[in-house]
Amino acid sequence: MKNLKIAFNYILKQKYFFIVLLGMLIYTVIFSAICLWKYNSFSHIDFDFAIHLQKYWNILHGSPRASIIDNTTIWGNAIEIIAYPFSLLYALFFCSPQAMLIIKVIILAAGAMPIFLIGRHAHSPRLGAAFAVSYLLYPALWFLALFEYFDLVLAGLTLLWAFYCLKTDRFWWYITCILLTIACRLDMTLVTLMIGIYAALDKKPWRWSILPITISLVWLYLGIFVFLPHFRTGVNYEQFYAYLGKDFPEIFKNILTRPSILFQPLLQEDNGYFILQILMPAGFFSLFALKELMICALNILQHLLSTRIAEHSIVNHYTIAMTPFIYISAIYGLLKFSGGNLPRRIFSYIIILPIISNIIYGPIHSMNKELVLLLRENTAKQKQRLIAMIPKNAAVVSTFEFLSHLSNRRYLYAFHYIYQGELRPGVPYAIPDNIEYALIDFNDIYTTIYFRKPDSDLNMRRFLEGNNWQVIDFIDSIALFKKNHPGNKKLYEIIPAKIRGFDKTPSAALAGKISLQDYNYSPVKAGGTTAIKFSFTWRCLNPNDNTLGMLIRLVDQNGKTRYETIRQLCYGIYPTQRWQKDETINDYYIMTIPGYLPKGKYALLLTLASMDRGTFFTFDQKISQKSINPDGSVAIGEIVLPIRN
Fold first, then answer.
1. Neighbours of 72 (CB within 10 A)
2. pLDDT band, very low/low/confident/very high, at 502 (cuts 50, 70, 90)
3. CB burial class (10 A; 0-12, 13-18, 19+) of residue 70?
4. For residue 195, which of 221, 218, 170, 177 has the smallest C-alpha distance?
5. pTM greater than 0.70
6. Half-sphere exposure of 622 (CA within 13 A, CB side)
7. Helix (H/G/I), strand (E/B), else coil: 424
């Protein structure tokens, strides 16, 4: 009993410390669970995660290269030396992508502890705890946790500890944190350089400033003038600053000699909104401590000047080096603003403001949309089933959501390079000859929208037809191909105009452009999942300038749409604007039935849509009144769930 009383009194005495620990634990549990769900539901839509995982796997197998980015070594990319110790950590957790996601969340959560210690050192444990909790509620930190895994995550933590060690006179720990930060990525030298300058302004002994400044400048020089020119292959970060110069040496020269060239890009509207998003959750107190905020000034400038849209947003990982100093400067800024006399209500304000910011522009809204994917359990199961068909050592090309699941192999390639036909602007992509399998989601928005070029469909068709790719299996918008596979499955077929037998009256037509000649469907089992197999026969009546897709809806007996899916005709491989007059096209499609749909009878309705313009079209009702609904959709039949075998 006495020991319990001692423990209780100790907890009361250290209550703010334990509040921070509790906040870190809650943050870790919640965001680890969300990250695992995102991974299992194939919700990672970029390829950063896969790049790092494959890099670790290849380091463990003797090569620091990532075939996803043109077989580039880490010395020719962002010079992330931290990848070597991280690869050992990856091996320790049996090369598990899920483990790395949890480690990322733990590292982010751990940043609350140095925030607490810095606030306690500057004023009081209560202030430190308030800002630590605010940090855990910071919208940009939430986006960092929800984004893909990345090496740079460690830099946020090491920068916080570097500043704390600077303030508490722990020199060698300070230098260790500086070195770890630089090892995370080359551009972190811009931040460690400013820490050295801050140490001089803070009147620290010379070694506190000279050593980090020297290390940062030497490493920055070696990276830009030695490592990148020698090792770089396909990666070219200069392209995002091309308006300032042809390469980084010229860019630096132009900025130093003609600083006025920075004014116009810095005054862009999205830059103002970006600054508002990073400062608002910390109460704008950072503006009252410009000396501390200055530490991340070059890093902020780097992103404001970039032509890459993602760098002007808090959604990705680009705020990782800014966030520590937004909060450090907010702590010192609040003390300067208040003169050190903090009213009780200010602590509530510190915590409430990031909550409000999160509601306004945080990830909550996007998460609501993503949660819908959780209901589509069959989609994830089917994706996993197709991945299981690929041998572990086979060379694969895939769209984005599959890359992290396929990353533990020597050769893995990103399909978007094939789709856009370029490695980067002006540099054609040379398709590797060793690719054996292709796993493609033709509805992958990130590929088909962000990397779409006028000839993307031609690039796809040349790739699939020129290498004798055959379909192993397909379902929904996804198809698995194998080079020289003996199977005879097809996604679509083109029937030349000279072949007859398709002249019967069409079921429906669209404005004299195309007609739906025939269709049939039947329930099937696909990988243990209930699905509907469709076959649509289309006729090109006249040339069409729209990229047409079909919207298929399952409508219950009360007229309510319970499920819908949209896809491009012929999977976008042979889009409608390429169809020739009088051609007949057979288009095959298998649609999974979500497991959450209740029992009952459902009508199957088909509507055509422009994939380019986001508009829907009504069929010509003059052809077949019986099959056309008032909303212009075609009633192609009905289905009863559950389907009896």
1. 21
2. very low
3. buried
4. 177
5. yes
6. 5
7. strand
Identify the residue with better confidence: 55 or 378. 55
Among residues of the chain, what percentage have pLDDT more than 70? 90
Distance CA 325, CA 190 (A): 13
Max Cα distance, the chain (Å): 96
Distance CA 182, CA 189 (A): 6
Closest CA to 316 of 143, 451, 154: 143
Flag whether pLDDT at 4 surpasses 60: no
Collapse the DSSP code of 634 into the 3-class scheme (helix H, G, I; strand E, B; otherwise coil) and give the result: strand
Task: Check pLDDT > 50 for residue 358.
Answer: yes
Please report how many Cα atoms fall inside a 13 Å half-sphere around the Cα of residue 124, on the Cβ side.
11
Per-residue DSSP letter, 579: P
- Continuous H helices in 137-247: 139-146, 153-167, 171-184, 189-201, 206-222, 228-231
- In single-letter form, the type of residue at position 237 comes to Y
Decide if 436 contacts 483 (C-beta within 8 A): yes
Q: Any idea what DSSP says for residue 598?
A: P
Q: Report whether 633 contacts 605 (CB < 8 A).
A: yes
Four-point Cα dihedral 472, 536, 460, 593, nearest 10: -60
Percent of the chain residues past pLDDT 90, beyond the cut: 51
Q: What would the two tokens of residue 511 be?
A: 């404005």
Q: Give the tokens for residue 165.
A: 């060690």
Closest CA to 453 of 483, 423, 476: 423
Q: Which two tokens stand for residue 462?
A: 């040349």
Please give the backbone phi and psi of residue 181, each rounded to the nearest 5 degrees, phi first: -65, -45
479-496 confidence digits (pLDDT tens): 999 998 887 889 999 987
Please work out, in degrees rounded to the nearest 5, the angle formed at the alpha carbon of residue 201 by the alpha carbons of 339 and 318: 85
**Exposed, middle or buried by CB within 10 Å (0-12, 13-18, 19+), for 388?**
exposed
Angle at CA of residue 533, ends 620 and 592, nearest 5°: 105
